Amino acid sequence: MSASRIRPQRRIIHWLGSALLGIVLLAGHVAAQSAADRFSVLIDGTVHAVALQADGRILVGGDFERINLAGHAWLRRIDASGVLDTGFLPQLNGPVRAIAVQADGRILIGGDFTQAGPLARAHLARLLPDGSLDAGFDASTDGAVQAIVLQADGSIVIGGNFASVAGIARTRLARLLPDGTPDADFDVPVNGVVETLAMERDGSLLAGGAFTQVDGIPRNRIARIRADGSVDPLFNPNANAPVHALLVEHDDRIVVGGDFTQVLGQPRVRLTRLNANGSIDAGFRPDADDAVRALALTADGLILAGGAFLEVEGEDTPGIVRLTRDGSVDTRFVGKVTFGLDAVRSIAVQPNGALVIGGLFADVGALTNPSLARLTRDGYLDRTLSTPANSEVSSILATSDGKMLLGGAFTQIDDAARGRIARLLPDGAVDAGVGTGSTTGLVRTMATQPDGAVVVGGNFTQLLGTPRTSVARLRANGTVDSAFSPDVSGPVSAVAIQRDGRILIGGSISEVDGVARSKLARLHPDGSLDTSFDAPADGSVTALLPLDDGRIVVGGAFTQIGGFARSRLVRLAADGTLDPTFAAQADGVVNAIVRMPGNGKLLVAGNFTEIAGTGMAFLARLGPDGTFDPGFITDLDGSVTDIALRADGRIAIAGTFTHVSGQARTHLALLHPDGSLDSSFADVEADNAVRSIAWQTDGKLLVGGIFAHIAGLARARLARLSIPGATQQWLRHEGDTVTWLRDGGNPEGIEPPLLAYSLDGETFTDVGAMTPIAGGWEFGGFDPGSELHFLRVRMRVGSHQHAGRVEHMARIRRGTGADDTIFRNGFD
Q: What is the pTM of this model?
């Protein structure tokens, strides 16, 4: 029997002051960014409810007295990175069991308390966004409120174990007007506790709990109440034991969790799905061996269940499980929770796809006694990345499943032998299946192809035990692709993938497949030489940027290309001939080029002191035609080697510099869109150069280079920095227009995103490139032929060192957006 299947006895949490104080202080110290990037919130009791605010902050309610050693009982707020909001002090006197956030930011809470702030508020209260009491809302009940749900018209439905609301008889179920007054037209008494509520699209209400009658009508543990307050006579699933959780899917089917073993007289063990009419979905049979207490839906339609179970469908899934759309266990999800006499009681899906889970656990992954934890979308614990490399990390790709592909000069990662390539799991552990085998030389650059394969460039003659000269391709599983074997003479420093799939390679190359190609060449997707493209340069090519129209911006150390004098920077036509309309040149090596979204301007980084005829050192912005942009001014004292864009317009830069605008910023800095220093991003004091940076979709920044310490911590050549704030995005389809809005720390692209759609979530059809709008992108004139469908957006991100791809997928009903703000996120 596996360790995760042994139920430990419930433990009393001992607060080991001296041992935990350092952890808590470290977490609380994250004022700007931290290399201790894990999500760590220590709570001394049970978490019953977790809710997300529109700004990404997290509300946590439960039966606890202290959080991070401080006496903050019952309800607290933390930011997206796990830092406690010390200004949010609701002042309650009892546990919180339910939370709902209104559209205007006010917060409804239910539970066992009898006072909120300075006033008596029994079991139900409304708070203002800052946590103070909304004194104008007084709907006290005479018993616990355990569930709250909001209607589209602003009305509030509550369930629990009360007999009156605001002095008016309402037995265990009530509907309130927006001001808290009980709705006189809704009086539906229930004869047992109501534990869970869910709204349907037509305004009907689903209720679950331990009752056997609703409004005097037999209804065992689950019922539907129509908008007019009448019990639906045709909906009677008849569960034989309490229902703890309800979830309405995008297609109106209803997932039910609880303690039952029969539904409609048929065996259905603790987890089932109903059709909209209340009949059983016969193909959905994920039986659980103990109670299911929490349900949530991912944006792409997968089902998350939490509870006290150890197994679902015979699979080892302690505490939490993800199900595919047909109800089978999704074995890609690795989350496991060890618990005592309690369980996972709440699951909230963050906009980046990460999961915040609450309850009372013995441990989650390597985290002991957490009560609150965050998992990646595939179930890995959000923990600090502390995975040392024994030599330079030159290139980083963050992949779609939260993993990290690394390239460089290293031969060991966290004491595991690796041949200059390694892949880390989202929790920082080294992926045992990738990177083994000898590599004779350095890996300098990587770029993702449309099928998820990765083209790797460097100066190697063997990659992971396979003979390859300077260029190779890795399959999605990390093995060398035997069908891709161009013969390249000379080191490759830059790789870029064009929209049509052809591959640009640059460096100090002299031949490809025996054909002369000086410093720059183009390959077909299969690796064979594109003989129609020949643009010889007299110096190395170190940066490549393919544009949407097929033209190519090239940077490096050359002074001539294609027989024309062009110093370090040039734009070529799609066939490799010179584009004479772009005249910008630089007086020093160009290391990186990225395209700004929306306006087509170019950020150019390197070791120059003059560019486009203007004295601007190390970093500059050019117009689409190559003219200097005076609206972007920087002041650096050293070269820039890499650039990473954020969706909010801010720009991360890495290099050898130590000061920006006269302020200490050692090898890493964050700039505002106009090039000025963002002072909120403090000096990380890296003790040596940073070579490569990449934003993750959770807003964290991956950093690689030759440093040994960064942000005050030992991090040998690889680190991940947590950044305050949430990554926010919204995908909507209204009328014939699809809109994708993004802000915060999301990675921004270097070319327009591509929209695709599917009716089954598996086979996608490309629609086209989206066009820029304020804060995001849109596509007009789109009709998928079905109201309910899947949308996928893909966008290329990064620079020559790590050309990755962001992917977002959501299941959407046209004309709605409220449930479509959560995404399956990631890179590939």
A: 0.88
Strand positions, DSSP E, 656-801: 659-660, 663-664, 668-671, 690-695, 701-705, 709-710, 713-714, 718-721, 728-734, 737-743, 754-758, 765-769, 771-773, 776-779, 788-797
Dihedral sign of CA atoms 742, 747, 748, 749 in order = negative
Residues 484-494 have pLDDT tens digits of 999 999 999 99
Q: b or e along 493-522 (b: 16 or more beta carbons within 10 Å of the residue's beta carbon)?
A: bbbbbbeeebbbbbbbbebbbeeebbbbbb
**pLDDT tens, position by position, 756-799:** 999 998 899 999 999 998 888 999 999 998 889 999 999 888 77
d(CA 362, CA 46) in angstroms, rounded, equals: 11
Phi, then psi, of 580 in degrees rounded to 5: -75, -10
Residue 725 and residue 216: Cα distance in Å, rounded?
A: 49
Residue 226 buriedness (CB in 10 A; 0-12 / 13-18 / 19+)? middle
DSSP 542: E
The SS3 of residue 468 is: coil
* Euclidean distance between the first and the last CA atom of the chain, given in angstroms as a whole number: 36
Strands 728-734 and 737-743: antiparallel
Phi, psi of 52 (to 5 degrees): -105, 135
On whether the CB atoms of residues 455 and 498 are closer than 8 A, the answer is no
Distances (CA, A) of 387 to 13, 51, 408, 423, 429: 29, 32, 15, 11, 7
Q: How many CA atoms lie within 13 A of 217 on its CB side?
A: 17
At CB < 8 A and 24+ separation, what contacts does 182-190 make?
182/139, 183/155, 185/228, 185/229, 186/229, 187/229, 188/214, 188/215, 188/225, 188/229, 188/231, 189/214, 189/215, 189/216, 190/159, 190/214, 190/215
- Among the listed residues 426, 431, 448, 443, the one whose alpha carbon sits nearest the alpha carbon of residue 492: 443
